[in-house]
Amino acid sequence: MADALSIDVFNGGYKAIPGGPGWDDRVPATWPATTSTLITANGDALLVDALLTRNEGERLAAWVQKTGKRPRAIFVTHGHADHFFGAGPVLDAFPDAALLACDQQVVDAARGQLSAKAMASWNARFPGQLPQSPSVPELAGSPEFDLDGHTILFRTIGGADGALATVVHVPDLRTICSGDIVYNNIHMWLWNSTPDSRKTWLASLDAVAALHPSTIITGHKDPDAPDDDATRVLDQSRRYLEDFEQALATSGTPRELFEGMLARYPTYGNRYTLFLAASSQFPS
Fold first, then answer.
1. In what side-by-side order are the strands of the sheet with 6-11?
2. Phi, psi of 97 (to 5 degrees)
3. CA 19, chain centre distance (Å)
4. Is residue 11's pLDDT more than 90?
5. Which of 41, 73, 180, 242 is the most interior residue, by most CB within 10 Å?
6. CATH number of the domain within which 178 lies
7. For residue 224, how many C-alpha atoms fall within 13 Å in the half-sphere facing its CB?
8. Count of structural domains, the chain
9. pLDDT tens digits for 169-207?
């Protein structure tokens, strides 16, 4: 009989980054808190996402080692660097683990993050903190992953925060690791978003909801968020996208949009994300 599944979540917390033009430096600019999820059964494990900086990767590797579990794979939900650049220390600690994605578009997007232009952008935000040659995920051979007799599903969902989004579905626990499709008490990454991309994102939320999860581990989660309740985080993510659309329609400047959304979501983490999103809607 298969051992019961368990899930543990590592939250990397917020990371300081340089504020851009127009940002009030009296408030530190930060990168959103990002999660990595360890799904385990017996001694085997699957790790979902692997954070960004070398320091985060080292902390993550130490955390996994402390559990005594052996990740057979690290699954990358989408091709943004803050979900796989930190994989190196984990792969060093567990050399038999594979770095995987379930869709070729995710592999291609991840490879694109290693371009000279993309690396220059990331290094400007995190000088001296990133690996020189990040590992890139390879395509998984199957959408199913057997974890000591439990079937874990890799599913391609659709668009979200600027990249094709996939999820890890754990049917036995009615749990989904959503990557960046769903957020938990953090301002959503709407930089350079459009009405069409926001509509696509709403459709992706509906597709996740159609899997009927009771728990959703979001890719970006405020460390003080109260829980991982699926209904709550899906509802708040839908409402945030809809409110952004409405606030944009009645705003004439980035500042108006920023303040309008801040009035609706005063306690959400990472206001700098909202600042960038608002600025991108009014290009100079």
1. 6-11, 35-41, 44-48, 70-75, 98-101, 138-139
2. -75, 145
3. 21
4. yes
5. 180
6. 3.60.15.10
7. 5
8. 1
9. 999 999 999 999 999 999 999 999 999 999 999 999 999
